[in-house]
Design a protein that fits this description.
Chain lengths: 426, 98
């Protein structure tokens, strides 16, 4: 029997600030407004656009477009180097606005958030969600910046609320309910649906599903057994009908990513950089009272930038390398993470010029509090030293106090602006 | 650091670390905030009047808080910093729109 569309009231709000980084730059510099603007992590001719303004997107300058290519497309194009503090501020102000409406609010990423009013009707004080949505748009202009616009989507579940937010871009507000759900699907392409990328599209096409309406009308059995071959098919079936399928998980990974100011192939220098990265991951872990069993590392090499060719284009030259390992015990101190990073580093290709580093601690879990012992163990002592070092670094700036072996390194690492999660923004 | 390129690949912005005089107003903003507006900036003997306010955002460097103000005056945009400890204004970047 077919499941009917979720009859509950649409009480989930998705707020999406499109082109957030580029818009923040246009907010800050009024002379960039109305111009095609791109944001990159490291400014040079081969710099890749990691965010593009609406004007740039309209010209075909999108995520991944190189600076030189963008300038060929539009002589008016301006590439700006990313400014994490600015985006952090915008993110924080947005979060404050969201939290003032419901305790169940969450930033899903740097530029989008959810306010869930389900079961909290009394918070609305008789107002409609559309009314609140328009108020949020106004508050974003007043409290974040007059150039900042957001898209608001309202629906019965988080996924549909995201669909709704994307339906009337830019600066839109749209509500999806059981009455217009099929009409909305009828207006869209498969790949316009959140989380339907090329691979899912091909899977759906193989089962004769070519439009969102086909997708919506497909039976649960077809989605579960034929298309997704598992529980995902069931989730999609529910999602498309407005039922909630998104479950909240706690922190699962703690990672940092850096672009090197001075690229290097010197193993000793790379080792010091790894320590710096490990120290930052360790601080994040400690702040959240977590420890990790797994460690993953990802390097990108300068080769592709030096020759200006696409990823993996030159035969025999390495462009990226990654490795991960699950260990038996959990760790959280910088020196422990560093030893594991060095363990992984041994397997990386030598002689290549490193352009960026990413270290991610995974399989994280809360730190267990053991029975206190009478005498301090070596481990506890090292833990205490790190805590003190962190306090000094909190006061005088990141990496003020570091082990002697690292202090000699003069290679600064610039924080990559974060994609996706904002869990560690503060 | 912050930087911008033009269509020719040359820089449209220049970095500075100059002390500047700023005439600013401090007024109550929405929801218990204070709205700070730098109306006039005097830099290297010239006065620039604020046309359009861009953004005011804080940035923490070590234990010190800096307030960053971005705004434009004609075809020039400025980024100035107010040190919350010393109350000193510094010009950090100038962007040339044409």
């Amino acid at each position: 029997m077919e499941l009917r569309i979720n009859p509950e009231l649409p009480e989930v709000m998705h707020i999406d600030m499109n082109s957030a980084f580029a818009m923040a730059e246009q907010q800050a510099n009024p002379l960039l407004r109305g111009r095609p603007v791109g944001v990159t992590n490291r400014l040079n001719d081969y710099a890749i656009c990691i965010a593009a303004s609406y004007e740039a997107k309209g010209l075909g300058i999108v995520l991944g477009t190189r600076n030189g290519e963008a300038r060929r497309i539009s002589p008016d194009f301006v590439m700006v180097e990313s400014d994490a503090a600015k985006y952090q501020y915008v993110n924080r102000r947005l979060r404050e606005i969201f939290e003032s409406y419901s305790p169940v609010s969450q930033m899903k990423s740097v530029d989008e958030g959810i306010i869930d009013f389900r079961g909290m009707r009394q918070l609305l004080k008789g107002r409609s969600l559309e009314d609140i949505g328009y108020e949020i748009k106004q508050r974003v202009r007043e409290e974040v910046g007059d150039y900042m616009t957001v898209n608001v989507g309202i629906a019965q579940n988080r996924w549909l609320a995201k669909v709704a937010a994307g339906f009337m871009k830019p600066d839109g507000l749209y509500k999806i309910d059981p009455d217009n759900l099929e009409a909305v699907y009828g207006m869209m392409e498969l790949m316009e649906l959140p989380y339907v990328k090329k691979r899912n599209k091909l899977r759906l096409n193989d089962a004769g599903i070519y439009t969102p309406l086909d997708f919506f009308r497909a039976s649960e059995v077809v989605l579960r057994k034929q298309v997704f071959k598992g529980i995902n098919g069931h989730h999609w079936y529910l999602k498309l009908r407005g039922y909630e399928t998104e479950v909240e998980y706690g922190i699962r990974t703690v990672g940092r990513s850096y672009v090197l100011e001075h690229r290097t192939s010197d193993p000793e220098e790379i080792a010091t950089l790894l320590y710096k990265a490990a120290a930052k991951v360790a601080r994040r872990l400690r702040k959240n009272n977590l420890a990790a069993r797994g460690l993953a590392m990802w390097f990108t090499y300068a080769g592709n930038l030096a020759v200006g060719r696409s990823w993996g284009a030159r035969k025999g030259q390495k462009f990226s390398w990654s490795e991960r390992k699950m260990y038996k015990t959990t760790v959280r101190r910088a020196d422990q993470l560093y030893l594991r990073a060095m363990d992984l580093f041994k397997g990386s290709p030598r002689g290549e010029v490193l352009a960026s580093i990413m270290i991610t601690a995974y399989a994280v879990e809360p730190v267990r509090v053991d029975q206190p012992t009478l005498y301090e163990s070596e481990d506890e002592r090292a833990d205490r030293i790190e805590e003190v070092m962190n306090k000094v670094n909190d006061r005088y700036g990141e990496l003020t106090l570091v082990p002697a072996a690292v202090a000699a390194s003069k290679n600064p690492m610039k924080d990559r602006i974060p994609f996706g999660t904002v869990r560690y923004f503060d | 650091m912050y930087g911008i390129t033009s269509e020719h690949g040359d820089s449209m912005s220049e970095q500075y670390d100059d002390k500047v005089s700023v005439l600013a107003s401090f007024a109550p903003g929405p929801r218990n905030t204070v709205r700070v507006t730098p109306h006039l900036i005097k830099w290297r003997g010239r006065r620039y009047r604020l046309d359009t306010m861009g953004l005011h955002h804080p940035e923490k460097r070590g234990e010190k808080w800096l307030h960053i103000f971005s705004f434009s005056s004609g075809q020039t945009a400025f980024r100035v910093e107010l040190d919350s400890e010393t109350l000193e204004w510094r010009l950090r970047e100038v962007f040339y729109g044409t």
